[in-house]
Amino acid sequence: MKFSYVLVALSALTFSTALPVIRPGSINGLVVRGGNSTSSLSGNSTASTASSTSSGSAKPTTAINLEDINENVASSKATSGSKKVTAAQVKSAVSGFASDANTVSAALNKLPSMTDKSDISALAGKAFAAESDEDSQRSVLFAAAGSAGSSANSKIVKNTPAVLKGLKAMMTNPSTASVKSNVATIENARNPNILPSITQLSNAALSAMSLSQTAQKFPATGNN
Question: Parallel, antiparallel, or unpaired: how do β-strands 30-31 and 26-27 relate?
């Protein structure tokens, strides 16, 4: 009998150890271990999140950069377009250039007969201002004329400094000797080069705007 009790006890013990043990944190009798599995899951989740965040932030950055580039290109085109010369601007420049040139010519024709130093200096100063203003008119006309006005434009640019230098000299030294010397130097540069080139450049700009080529022809100074 005792032997039978021992067998029953052993059988019961064997059966109890074979049953699954349900512990806290288990699901359906399967133990979820908190070590590597948890850390690996959370690690993978974190990595995935970081990856998605990284890829998500990269796309907007690329798009913004492309938009900036497109805006810069559009801005450049708009700026280039804003520099185009209109027919009205050409007409105004032709008129302004002629007015300035006539002012300088009138001064050069009158200066040799003048004796009062203050008057000489004042008139030379007036001519200097007009000659200086010619450059703004020239730039408008050359922008309109393009290659058709290159030769005339080059002659004006090359010879204008001699005119300005001579007028400046008469402003600072308004003696009769200074006037005689500087007027001659100015006319040598201006008569054959600048005066006909003003007409040529003006007509080239007018032609480019499909306007009548009616630019003034300027007589040489010093012959009156």
Answer: antiparallel
How far is 83 from 7, CA to CA, in rounded Å?
110
Q: What is the pLDDT of residue 132?
A: 96
Question: Would 17 be classed as within a structural domain?
Answer: no
Radius of gyration of the chain (CA): 47
Rounded Cα distance, 215 and 149, in Å? 14
pLDDT (tens digit per residue) in 122-181: 999 999 999 999 999 999 999 999 999 999 999 999 999 999 999 999 999 999 999 999
Q: Give the CATH number of the domain where residue 156 resides.
A: 1.20.120
pTM of the model: 0.64
Which residue carries 């400046």 as its tokens?
168
Q: Give a yes or no: residue 163 inside a domain.
A: yes
Name the domain count of the chain.
1
What is the Cα–Cα distance from 99 to 111, expressed in whole angstroms? 18
Neighbours of 54 (CB within 10 A): 9
